[in-house]
Each structure stands twice: as C-alpha cells, then as structure tokens.
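[agent] plan:
  1. take the single chain provided in the ticket
  2. run structure prediction with default settings
  3. attach structure tokens to the ticket
  4. add a short note for the reviewer (M.T.)
[agent] executing step 1
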Amino acid sequence: MHIRRATPADLPAILNVVRRVVPLMQAAGNYQWEADYPNEAVFQADIEREQLWVAELAGQVVGVAALTTDQDSEYAQADWDAAEQAVVTHRLAVDPEVQGKGIAAALLQQAEVLAAEWGLRSLRVDTNSENKATQQLFPKLGYRFAGEITLAFRPGLRFYCYEKRLGAPAH
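[agent] step 2 finished; step 3 output follows
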C-alpha cells in the first residue's frame, strides 16, 4: 500500500470510490454522504490546498482522506479544547472491495505523520452516528469518544467526535 498526496489526475478514481461507498452507507442507514456531497468541487479544493491524500493498492486508488486543520465551528460542542489546533480527518472513504485491509488505518496514520511535522498533539475526526464501522475503528486506533455534535450543513444528522492525543512534539 502506498499513501500519497492526491493530484488532479486522481479525481476520477476518487469519485469512483465515493460513488461505490455512498449506496452502501445509505443501505446501512448512514446518510452522512449523498449524491451531491462530497463532490468533485470539494475534492478539487482539497487537492488545490494540498490536503487530500490517497491510498493505492497495486497502482489503483482505493482510499481517500482530507487531512486538514479545518474544524467546523460546531466542534466547540465536543469534549475537547476547540481552540487547540489539530489534524482533522474529513471525507475518509475506502473502496468497498478492499475494506478491512487496513486502508483507513493507513490514511489515519498519515494524519499522525502530519501532526508530527506540524508540531500538533491532537488528531480529530467526526462520523455519522449511524456509521458503525468507524465507531469500531477509531477506538481501536487509540481515539477516544469525545461526544456528539450536530453540523449546520448536515441538518437532521448527529455526529460522534473522536480524538487521539499524541505525545509532546519533539523539539
């Protein structure tokens, strides 16, 4: 497996992964994503900001995650210091054909690499309250449950927040 920054040439493969994931999410009662979100414009903006990462297996894009320091204002509702800068994982998706092979974990590991590079001690992520897979994955990777929030741009949904604290940054 290879983790690298996404390029504009990766957009068709990224959108294909998302198109394959969304129906499975919705079938499981998870309406975090829809046909119009996340979309090409969102991923294009992530690429332009150099904050989109892809996982490749055998040269094929099989996973994606935006690794940013962007925290929605609603993050203040969670049990953490909302003023602290953190590496935040957004738009994490893995091709259904290769789920369970450590791809999401590898993308989340990249968030730790960035935190070390940027001198940050906190990793954060939120997930829809109906996303059972991520609710099992995040604690296995050392994330603690940090409460439930709502997001204005996703009305009617509830999101669970998770945080992982890292050791003191090296000086």
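[agent] step 4 note for reviewer: The first strand starts at residue 2 and ends at 5.
[agent] ticket updated
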